[in-house]
């Protein structure tokens, strides 16, 4: 292992942006492995290959470092699927895309999800923070989808976009808690399909028939035509019992 003085000279030669990036990458790993309470600045400094004092040059304390790590995570989530999302057409497909990607992000980074839900969001200063605005932008994409669906005549005009957003993200959070506690797992594709169908069928203006309903309808039409061609009177519906 290099002497501490040699390490310090090497660190000093790095540009500030690189040092901040290395510290945040190390912090993300340490927070993921140990959680917020058990993570130590000394652990993060050792993982980043810097002296402990270097961290306090850029971050006031461990809490600020955690917030910056999660902010960076949200910024990546907003950027990584922006191009793909822009190419998706139709309310059902767009809702499903957002739901699936959110479920995938939770499954990929469960530790950051737990830290967001348990450590950051309950804090009294969260609502006025930059992270709150990032989370708002992240979830507001679903609000925009619903508004566009209403304007296009695909979704019911009395649909509340904010209520749909709350239903979807609240459902996802509740559905993934077992996984986040380490007590189970879930399939992102299967779960996304189920949530999207449930929400979409509740707000769609013209709901397409399911494949089975379409088959039954075609059979009934064909039967009626055959009976008409054969001169058979259609069967009268049996009286319903009260």
What does this structure look like?
74% of the residues lie in helices and 0% in strands. The protein has 242 residues and is mostly helical. Mean pLDDT is 86; it is low at 236-242.
Shape: elongated
Order of helices and strands: HHHHHHHHHHHH
Low-confidence stretches: 236-242
**How far apart are the first and last residues' alpha carbons, in Å?**
86 Å
The number of helical runs is 12
Radius of gyration: 27 Å
Class by helix and strand content? Answer: mainly alpha
Short summary of the structure?
With 242 residues, this protein is an all-alpha fold. It is built from twelve helices and no strands.
Give me the secondary-structure topology.
Blueprint lengths: L3 H10 L2 H23 L2 H8 L3 H7 L3 H19 L1 H5 L4 H18 L1 H11 L9 H22 L9 H20 L7 H16 L7 H19 L13
Helix pairs in contact: 2-3, 2-5, 2-8, 5-9, 7-8, 7-9, 7-10, 7-11, 9-10
């Amino acid at each position: 292992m290099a002497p501490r003085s040699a390490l310090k000279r090497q660190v000093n030669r790095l540009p500030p942006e690189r040092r901040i990036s290395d510290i945040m990458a190390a912090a993300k790993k340490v927070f993921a492995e140990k959680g917020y309470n058990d993570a130590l600045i000394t652990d993060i400094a050792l993982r980043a290959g810097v002296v402990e004092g270097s961290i306090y040059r850029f971050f006031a304390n461990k809490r600020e470092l955690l917030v910056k790590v999660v902010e960076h995570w949200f910024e990546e989530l907003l950027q990584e699927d922006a191009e793909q999302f822009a190419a998706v057409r139709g309310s059902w497909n767009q809702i499903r895309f957002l739901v699936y990607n959110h479920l995938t992000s939770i499954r990929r980074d469960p530790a950051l999800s737990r830290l967001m839900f348990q450590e950051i969001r309950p804090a009294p200063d969260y609502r006025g923070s930059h992270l709150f605005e990032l989370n708002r932008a992240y979830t507001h994409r679903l609000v925009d989808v619903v508004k566009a669906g209403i304007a296009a005549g695909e979704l019911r005009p009395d649909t509340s976009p904010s209520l749909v957003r709350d239903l979807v993200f609240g459902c996802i959070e509740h559905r993934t808690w077992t996984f986040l506690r380490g007590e189970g797992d879930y399939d992102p594709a299967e779960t996304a399909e189920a949530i999207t169908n449930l929400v979409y069928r509740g707000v769609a203006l013209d709901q397409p028939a399911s494949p089975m309903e379409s088959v039954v309808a075609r059979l009934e039409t064909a039967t009626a035509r055959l009976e008409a061609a054969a001169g058979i009177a259609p069967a009268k519906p049996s009286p319903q019992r009260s």
